[in-house]
Design brief:
The chain has 10 helices and 16 strands. α1 crosses α2, α3 packs antiparallel against α4 and α4 packs across α6. It is 32% helix and 17% strand. It has 2 domains: 250 residues, Alpha/Beta hydrolase fold, catalytic domain (Rossmann fold, 3-Layer(aba) Sandwich), CATH 3.40.50; 98 residues, Rna Polymerase Sigma Factor, Chain: A. β6 and β7 form a beta hairpin. An 8-stranded mixed sheet has the order 1-4-10-5-13-14-15-16, sandwiched between helices. Strands 2-3 form a two-stranded antiparallel sheet. The protein has a two-stranded antiparallel ribbon with strand order 6-7. By secondary structure, the chain is α/β, with parallel strands linked by helices. Keywords: Acyltransferase, Amino-acid biosynthesis, Cytoplasm, Methionine biosynthesis, Transferase.
Length: 375
């Protein structure tokens, strides 16, 4: 898109909270910071605010770019901006880096005021519920009593769903994209393999690698490679790479033979260069723990009875990590409670990562729904 459809240069902001936050684990953080960005303008009656919740490796940088680095474009820039599906001429959009993150919000790499050293292994496990609680405090700080909408894909979708349960009166619309009401055993298994790759890296040092001046890059690289396989579909991998050989001949050794191997190594190396391993551990645990039906004997219909928002759920046909049937579970449970629900199943061959792409049908669905939200 042309520049007129970009929010342009953006700057992150920081909110400090001196009030302690009690976490689901029983641990308490005495104080913490949340880094966030905003796009568009909050209207006079503060009715046009939209919260965007990020997934595992996402951040507060949802749209636009930084003045000192024009190539650092927000992760959902194709969706957010003037005239885009999430139109910043209409909405005031907020993106926040979750507690425990590694993009400026208080997390394992932050200095623990009690020790003067990075928290490291002392940083507590946080949950989706904890993120929603901290986001609600940020909303209070911004003077937003009710969100016009809360939107998220994957783990972000879980946050949007949890908002509708924890603060039903503060959410008018919840857009839950490529998500699930809880992880399957297979999904938990993938996360555990990824965590073990990090935990068994000799450079991990029990989570206190900061003091040793090292990064558990090998473990983080493997974790990302495993994760990346699950984000793509077999169709897309076949279409993009097939069995193409990197150099046209078999090498008969353990170096790269196939293009897909080269791609995974590149993605792993890139990720290990900027993401924090402890944050990866914390975030995958938050994924594993999310299960709003747990306190209702596994009955999702009973769990979702608290919600009063209107919903849009979107799934993608080739997403096998968060398959369409998982979205339909939520649709059925919400309909059982007589909630207003729209559902779209998008035919896209890109697997789980489809929610990040500029797919015409997907964006048309999102744009049409958001256009009809009154502010």
């Amino acid at each position: 898109m042309s520049d007129k459809h970009s929010v342009g240069v953006v700057s992150p902001q920081r909110a400090h909270f001196a009030e302690p936050i009690q976490l689901a684990s029983g641990a308490t953080l005495a104080a913490y910071d949340l880094v966030y960005e905003t796009y568009g303008r909050l209207n006079a009656d503060r009715s046009n605010a939209v919260l965007v919740c990020h997934a595992l490796s996402g951040s507060h940088h949802v749209a636009g770019h930084y003045a000192d680095n024009p190539k650092n474009v927000g992760w959902w820039d194709n969706l957010v901006g003037p005239g885009k599906p999430l139109d910043t001429d209409k909405f005031f959009v907020v993106g926040v880096n979750n507690l425990g993150g590694c993009y400026g919000s208080t997390g394992p790499g932050s200095i623990n005021p009690a020790t003067g050293k990075p928290y490291g292994a002392d940083f507590p496990v946080v949950t989706v519920e904890d993120w929603v609680e901290s986001q609600a405090r940020l909303a209070d700080r911004l003077g937003i009593n009710q969100w016009a909408a809360i939107i998220g894909g994957s783990l972000g979708g879980m946050q949007a769903l949890q908002w509708s349960l924890e603060y039903p009166e503060r959410v008018r619309h919840a857009l839950v994209i490529a998500s699930a009401p809880k992880l399957t055993a297979q999904n938990i298994a993938f996360n555990e393999v990824a965590r073990q790759a990090i935990l068994t890296d000799p450079d991990f040092h029990g989570g206190n690698y900061y003091e040793h001046g090292v990064v558990p890059a090998r473990g983080l690289r493997l974790a990302r490679m495993v994760g990346h396989i699950t984000y793509l579909s077999d169709d897309q991998m076949g279409e993009k790479f097939g069995r193409q050989l990197r150099e046209g001949v078999l090498k008969y050794n353990y170096d790269v033979d196939f293009e897909i191997e080269s791609y995974l190594r590149y993605q792993g190396d890139k990720f290990a260069g900027f993401f924090d391993a402890n944050t990866y551990l914390i975030t995958t645990k938050a994924l594993d723990y999310f299960d709003p039906a747990r306190d209702f004997g596994g009955d999702l219909k009973a769990a979702l009875a608290r919600a009063s928002a209107k919903f849009l759920l979107v799934s993608f046909t080739t997403d096998w990590r968060f398959a369409p049937e998982r979205s339909r579970e939520m649709v059925y449970a919400l309909l059982h409670n007589n909630r207003e629900v729209s559902y779209a199943e998008i035919d896209c061959n890109a697997g789980h990562d489809s929610f990040l792409l500029d797919d015409a049908q997907y964006h048309a669905v999102m744009g049409a729904y958001l256009h009809n939200i009154a502010v």
